[in-house]
Design goal:
2 copies of one chain form a homodimer. By secondary structure, chain A is of the alpha/beta class. Chain A is built from 13 helices and 16 strands. In chain A, the strands form 3 sheets. Chain A has a 6-stranded mixed sheet with strand order 7-9-8-6-10-11. Chain A has a 5-stranded parallel sheet with strand order 2-1-3-4-5, with helices on both faces. In chain A, strands 12, 13, 14, 15 and 16 form a 5-stranded antiparallel sheet that branches. The two termini of chain A are 47 Å apart.
């Protein structure tokens, strides 16, 4: 079968990451989908000819950003019957209806997962999983720069200016981050989400927005006192038969699903009587992550109706993995108990992370949390421990997941 | 255009909810997709003829559960060139390869979002958004009954038997919940997720599993002492070039994205160097919720390439919504300040939820959190407050989201 020809417009951070990822994954995609994707042309500010690239492509990926000439290129691609994948939130929040109409007329796909919340699959879920759900409300943390800044201010007591400086240093904010911190970037994304969730046209100009420039360390101190979490929240909800779409700094109570989203992560909660609520979270930006979302869209345009491809690999099933364990022992309260248990663990190369021992009359309870070890070693140790004469009941063991997680700001 | 004809196999809780939802949403779907879905036949234990229903349908929805006769019906439907949507985790975890092969051969869609984690869109995201991502690991809370039981045990100190009884009373556990509590239900779901995430055949029999029947209140007491959260966790991960798929009770540290998933909710975290990690959560069961997932799959089978339909409604944009506010005032520390502020708020019908006042020499800081009020009223009140002569700096106001959330167990 011939290859699936992709024209790439724009080769900045995301464009370069996309080109690299497509090449890395071409074998897998060919095994999965039956066609091999191939980049047939790249348009940059200084190189490439749009008409030639268009002519040669089955699908055009637009990663130039901005309105002009992106709008013209996307429209021409759609009208030429090419599928289009874009990450352009400015374009969709201001000229979306025109582009979607062009895609319907040409009966081609226009996909844009990466335009909102990066690889967090909120666009696809609104368009497909929830295509006919009656949605009441949608809350989102859709700007990673501001979420990073607010997380840092809460964590360290820094001022807005200090936290912004740190975000810039770490690459979570651009040199000109005006539209991030004043809420306009989030407003564009909320316009796109509201259009999909409520089936009504929503233009960026209709979204009320406010930024985080005026947030002080005091506000975050009070948040902590009241058990609140301060986030830049986009809201789109039905109000009195109409629609409200807005972006503001908002305090969330601790049990809100968005309260625990920290650092540069994004998350969206969709509420509907049909589904109660679902929440999706993950990295909202970053070249490789955003490129993954773009590639997912490209593959969707390539995919035939049957969605589960033949197995592409035959992996062995591994049973003896490394796990950390909590071990709970009821023992006689007498000297040497801990020493004997520790000796057995040591012989099996199992290292103890924390121990808690409590006496209760002539009996004691010994609870330990271990570092990861082979499950077979832990089973062998428990077998030996269970034979110790001071044990009052069989040992109890439960696994512990202890790794550091990427959603934390450090 | 002719209607899109759906044959329904099975009319239990989910089947009945699906039939009702399809009828409720038929207008919206027709407006959105251009064709009206219609149920042309229902097969129950006592009524209906499979061959007649098959003949009349464009798509068959299988909600009978179990292996026999579901396997035969799904195979025959696929081989007859009909799309199939199923929620049958037993079937897919034991005969998935046979069914997926049949769907590829007939070039029809076999969708199964509702088979794992109800309306949480994990199947779609693995198949589409992450179709070419290199996934390292997947953790899931994929059984709502056990998550409810563990949440109750942690919250109230109940024993396993007591919490199971309560789950049954509230409808979160069936009368025979053996396969829920012993981990086998979660194991079937993990087999399906692992197949999609790693592209390798995975059979239910290859999944190691352990249930929560032996968990004691003690374990949960220690969890709380060590800052851990106890969950029944399914894990599928690459290990030494192979694959491990398993289900166990596991302690999670508090910052793990699954640690805060409580009550009957489900959630899945996917880890990949391409995407860092994404997490999806929501209701894992329930008739209407599962029916929503089934309907999303049906619509996907109906959808033409251009995914954003014409606007189906023109909603007014509402700007003056109800919001709760935090208000921060720096004032002279003198008598009557709180009274004057309270009077202005009262005149605008704004009710105060909590107040915190602190003196600092001749100055005081007054922080209040309000109940929801019209934003225009709050703006008017702030305008009046800002004119008070004892104010040292302009009043500061930030919104608060204070509602109760559905993911909490009560």
């Amino acid at each position: 079968m011939t290859s699936f020809k992709v024209g790439l417009l724009g080769r900045g951070t995301v464009g370069a990451a996309f080109a690299e990822l497509l090449e890395q994954r071409a074998d897998t995609i060919e095994a999965t989908v039956g066609r091999r994707p191939e980049i047939v042309g790249v348009l940059t500010r200084s190189r490439g000819d749009f008409d030639e690239i268009l002519e040669a492509s089955d699908l055009v990926v637009e990663l130039m950003g901005g309105l002009d000439p992106a709008r013209d290129y996307v429209l021409r691609a759609l009208r030429a019957g090419k599928h289009v994948v874009t990450a352009n939130k400015q374009l969709l929040s201001q000229h979306g209806e025109e582009l979607w109409e062009a895609s319907r007329e040409a009966n081609v796909t226009l996909r844009f997962e990466a335009s909102v919340a990066g690889v967090v699959p909120v666009i696809r879920v609104l368009q497909e999983t929830l295509a006919a759900a009656h949605i009441d409300r949608l809350h989102g943390i859709v700007n990673g720069t501001t979420n990073f800044i607010l997380t840092e201010m809460a964590r360290t007591g820094a001022t807005f200016a200090e936290a912004l400086g740190q975000a810039q240093e770490l690459g979570y904010a651009e040199a000109d981050s005006t539209e991030d911190v004043n809420g306009r970037d989030a407003a564009a994304k909320m316009a796109i989400l509201a259009r999909l969730a409520f089936g009504t046209p929503v233009h960026l100009d209709q979204v009320v927005y406010e930024g985080i420039e005026h947030i002080t360390p005091d506000d975050l101190e009070y948040a902590s006192r009241f058990g609140l979490s301060l986030k830049l929240i986009g809201t789109a909800e039905r109000v009195d038969g109409g629609l409200s779409v807005r972006v503001h700094p908002v305090f969330l109570y601790g049990d809100h699903p968005l309260a625990s989203i920290s650092g540069p992560f994004n998350a969206v909660t969709v509420e509907s009587p049909d589904i109660t609520e679902i929440t999706m979270s993950g990295p909202g930006a970053g070249g490789p992550q955003t490129a993954s979302a773009v590639l997912g869209d490209v593959i969707s345009a390539m995919i035939p109706p049957a969605l589960v491809p033949e197995p592409i690999v035959k992996l062995d099933m591994v049973e003896d993995v490394l796990s950390a364990f909590y071990v709970h022992l009821e023992v006689d309260d007498r000297p040497g108990v801990l020493a004997q248990v520790a000796q057995i663990l040591g012989m099996q190369d199992i290292s103890v992370k924390s121990v808690d021992q409590r006496g209760m009359g002539d009996q004691a309870r010994l609870v330990m949390v271990m570092h990861p070890a082979k499950e077979s070693s832990v089973a062998a140790a428990l077998q030996l421990i269970s034979q110790l004469d001071f044990l009052r009941s069989p040992p109890r063991a439960i696994r512990v997941i202890e790794e550091e997680f990427l959603s934390s700001p450090e």
